[in-house]
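Quick one, probably user error.
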């Protein structure tokens, strides 16, 4: 009884500290944990019901629009989404008695703290991924059967795709897992649900994407985008940072520190593989690991013909999540409550990194609000001029501005700078001072 009470207290403490860290992660960041894609998400949300692009599904922008309509705004709404996503996963795990310890352990890892604090759709998709894994497990143990099983699995797959296009890999994984287990009771259900998901993807392409952008495929599909030599290195680095429980960001200009970061991640992957092989996985464990591995493999191969960012912890989060669940379950079976020490150490590492590299988002936001008000640009469409996409220091200013006025686009046309609503780094920084974060 005492041991159980102690563990409950440890879990509650980790949940509280994780929540505090999520909030500190974006408040102690110069631009509130946004990136260039965040600009597009918030602009798309702001434009709804007008659809201004089909680069991303509408699930995340619609959620941000809801918060904007109730007066919170797209930016703060994205932070609420991240916090609610974390709480939902923990609550659902507790309610359904499904990997509760593991969700608390994973949620406190610095990489997932970073995900929940980001203005990105990964924060929204994680609770849907968790529900998907639960539904799949319930079908496999025959707690959900027949048409109900098919309907539930099909709907959650469709929901996932409406948040991130990479959910296509979950759909393919379900179909393949059903084929591999065709003789088992759940095999046909998985196949039918996977086919339904693929049918939805096809209809989505012809009825939605083509309606708004007939040239989408021509714009984004190109064979041989990157050489294998480059992609394999990025895959290794991405996997090592993704599965490093303490540090998920490598130093951009290289250096000795990266050997330690990649090395620790690689050793963790080896330990993970050892535990999975030595201790036989349950049927549920096999499904979770299979879903994650298929997603990672597909994320790698899609880069040969679809332009996406290099593989990293953020892109792999939906697929690393189920693998982390099984891994922490195995670790707990070996080390017991000592396993909580991994998450505690990760939170400490995250706090140290966040503090040492801190910026002041609230002060920067105040400065931007003051600037836009003086320029009478608070509620007007804005453009931000850059010479190229590689000018990361300049795009940070655009990201910061978009957290105040989400109706923001980036332009690379010099002649646009003659317009009053087109901002440049010089125009902004000659009138205000921004608290810079030298590490991010």
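Nope, works fine. Designed sequence:
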């Amino acid at each position: 009884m005492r041991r159980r009470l102690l563990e409950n207290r440890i879990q509650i403490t980790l949940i509280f500290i994780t929540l505090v860290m999520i909030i500190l992660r974006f408040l102690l960041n110069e631009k509130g944990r946004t990136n260039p894609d965040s600009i597009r998400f918030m602009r798309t949300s702001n434009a709804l019901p007008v659809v201004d692009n089909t680069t991303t599904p509408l699930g995340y922008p619609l959620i941000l629009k809801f918060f904007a309509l109730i007066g919170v705004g797209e930016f703060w709404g994205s932070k609420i989404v991240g916090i609610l996503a974390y709480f939902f996963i923990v609550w659902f795990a507790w309610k359904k008695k499904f990997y509760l310890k593991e969700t608390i352990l994973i949620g406190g890892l610095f990489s997932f703290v970073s995900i929940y604090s980001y203005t990105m759709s990964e924060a929204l998709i994680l609770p849907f991924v968790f529900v998907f894994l639960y539904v799949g497990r319930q079908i496999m143990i025959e707690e959900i059967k027949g048409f109900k099983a098919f309907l539930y699995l099909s709907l959650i797959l469709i929901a996932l795709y409406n948040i991130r296009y990479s959910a296509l890999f979950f759909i393919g994984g379900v179909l393949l897992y059903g084929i591999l287990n065709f003789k088992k009771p759940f095999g046909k259900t998985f196949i039918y649900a996977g086919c339904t998901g693929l049918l939805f993807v096809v209809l989505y392409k012809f009825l939605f994407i083509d309606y708004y952008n007939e040239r989408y495929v021509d714009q984004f599909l190109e064979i041989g985008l990157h050489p294998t030599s480059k992609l394999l290195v990025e895959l290794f680095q991405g996997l090592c940072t993704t599965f490093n429980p303490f540090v998920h960001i490598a130093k951009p200009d290289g250096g000795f520190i990266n050997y330690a970061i990649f090395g620790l991640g690689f050793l963790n992957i080896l330990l993970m593989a050892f535990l999975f092989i030595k201790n036989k996985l349950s049927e549920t464990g096999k499904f979770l690991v299979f879903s994650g591995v298929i997603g990672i493999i597909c994320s790698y191969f899609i880069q040969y013909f679809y332009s996406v960012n290099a593989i990293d912890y953020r892109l792999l989060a939906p697929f690393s999540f189920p693998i982390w669940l099984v891994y922490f379950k195995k670790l707990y079976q070996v080390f017991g409550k000592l396993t909580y020490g991994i998450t505690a150490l990760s939170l400490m590492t995250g706090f140290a990194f966040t503090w040492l590299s801190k910026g002041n988002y609230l002060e920067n936001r105040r400065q931007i609000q003051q600037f836009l008000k003086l320029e009478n640009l608070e509620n007007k469409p804005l453009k931000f001029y850059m010479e190229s996409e590689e000018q990361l220091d300049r795009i940070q200013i655009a990201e910061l501005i978009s957290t105040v006025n989400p109706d923001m686009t980036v332009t690379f046309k010099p002649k646009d700078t003659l317009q009053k609503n087109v901002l440049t780094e010089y125009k902004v920084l000659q009138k205000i001072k921004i608290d810079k974060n030298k590490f991010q």
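The chain has a mean pLDDT of 91.
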